[in-house]
């Protein structure tokens, strides 16, 4: 689209970003710099009625890569992904583009001025370059979600709140692409009616999942997909792999307890808005205070009332999915 590129917000200096704003593994700018720039970029585009786009990319099968090659192998895969993005960004006419590492296997790529077809073409090209890259011992693929800024031009809200909605929508579309088998680009939310499951995903974290089997069955009967983790560490890894619509977590789960899981969710802008439901046999005043401190709004004593919990989850999903 026609726009005065000379007046674009200054892109983050990719190689020279300060330590505070640079991801130590990939050396890309990190999410802190990204969250400073995206609202400015969106406002610039909206004021000029000039479309831009955000791509959120996720390296597919990162847990399988870690399992097969160890954590160091997973780190090498992430560095290879970052290198592909940097090489693409260094192409002619892309001086205003920016590539960042958001968290875990998630990366962002913003294009301050482009048409919607150009944004889709960029996503397809990056997907192709990752798949054909020889920078890693095995073949890598990515799932990509694309949001065009013009989609939110008529929405009400501050530039920060609208930028957050752009980011969340891009993550949602990335999840659609992933559920369609990965190595795919999604630039419209209504494409979820493809071959992949259209049911919302809920993450259940409990060291004794058999004790929650009735809850799992009840949620699935309500057409909700359930993923079960037995400890907090694997729960955080599961969120990195596929962002759930809600989390039900045992307060005293091992490795990382439920309160710490919630704190990690709050520390990440992509996960902070995930509704979080705490459950425990040991619900008492001290634990309630801890829950309030980390902004947990729903806390149930075990054994849970199935009708109450499932009803709450269904209502939450209706509100977050519109």
Task: Summarize the structure in words.
With 322 residues, the protein is α/β, with parallel strands linked by helices. It folds into two domains: 5-193, Alpha-Beta Plaits, CATH 3.30.70.270; 201-315, Rossmann fold, CATH 3.40.50. It has helices spanning 31-48, 62-89, 116-132, 159-179, 213-221, 232-241, 258-266, 285-293, 306-321; strands at residues 53-59, 98-103, 106-111, 142-148, 185-186, 201-205, 225-229, 246-250, 276-280, 298-301. The strands form two sheets. Strands 2-3-1-4-5 form a five-stranded mixed sheet, with helices on both faces. It has a five-stranded parallel sheet with strand order 7-6-8-9-10, sandwiched between helices. Helix 1 (31-48) packs across helix 4 (159-179) and helix 6 runs parallel beside helix 7 (258-266). The chain is globular and about 60 Å long. The two termini are 31 Å apart. Residues 12-17 and 191-197 have low confidence and may be disordered.
